[in-house]
């Protein structure tokens, strides 16, 4: 029987304080998430200083709860994985310092994990048969990356956003049409009642890289449309604006994904990150992949948004590859995927 490697994982890169225990990178024993959304909602977005302070208040409780739910003591885990970048520096530091203290005290290996590698690895939990190589579109509040996963822990970034991340565009447009923060899930809901063809918003491309993204033009187009309606005293149909904006995002993401599938001959394609829980994006990729004879994967919604189980999955594969971080592990807010 395969030896069971149990990884205790910690994630604190943005506004969720999270801890989890994952066995062999695929089986989740616990997945505890303490969300700060309620407090940041008051300010219309994440306030970094508040995020750090809330992480400090919660981290010990969250880790203790993750071990309790997994029915394990700290002594029984094989390693401690922690997100060390990219993200908000103060927020990351709380998780990194806590993981270092636990690993030092319990004499356990410490494994620093890249946040985007975590998002990609969430797919290993929901889809036990998924193995590299595959293509993956990572769409979250902070990132939009089209990635070629060559092996566990080995990545080539094919394209990325030149300006706003996809989730950022969802959040900003949601705020502009009065839906509040976080906007992604709200646009998803409201769009179900709207007409995606009501307003023709732009599908921007980037001249020198067919895999890069740009969402700031789309966001401006929505803001201009809203201003124009106000000036001409035309009614604004919130559902139609939301659905038409969402359709523009879907079209852009899908076109880049399909281009990569054809160019690199991917037999398997996955999506990941908070925006990957969007129902229209999931449906569009599912249908297109089926047409192309490509197997499509996505994490269950709770593993799309920030969580520590995904860090435990990524941490396991890094652990198996012999990766160990030193006591000098630090938070790296702009860490690049594939760098150590
Ligand atoms: O992965 P995540 O939790 O945090 C980052 O690493 O950034 O992603 C959060 C983002 C937010 O921008 C949120 O609005 C977006 O994911 N999001 C969605 C949906 N659920 C969350 N966007 C579109 N549709 C959704 N259903
Ligand atoms: Zn994330």
Task: Walk me through what this model shows.
With 340 residues, the protein is α/β, with parallel strands linked by helices. It folds into 2 domains: 6-122 and 303-320, ATPase, nucleotide binding domain (Nucleotidyltransferase, domain 5); 132-298, ATPase, nucleotide binding domain (Nucleotidyltransferase, domain 5, 2-Layer Sandwich). The chain has 11 helices and 10 strands. It has helices at residues 37-41, 48-69, 89-106, 115-126, 166-176, 183-191, 216-231, 238-264, 279-292, 301-304, 309-320; strands spanning 6-11, 16-23, 27-35, 79-85, 110-114, 134-139, 144-151, 154-160, 268-272, 295-297. Strand 1 (6-11) and strand 2 form a beta hairpin. The model has no long low-confidence stretch (mean pLDDT 96).
Descriptors:
340 residues; alpha/beta; Nucleotidyltransferase, domain 5; 2 domains; five-stranded mixed beta sheet; binds 5'-O-[(R)-(carboxyoxy)(hydroxy)phosphoryl]adenosine
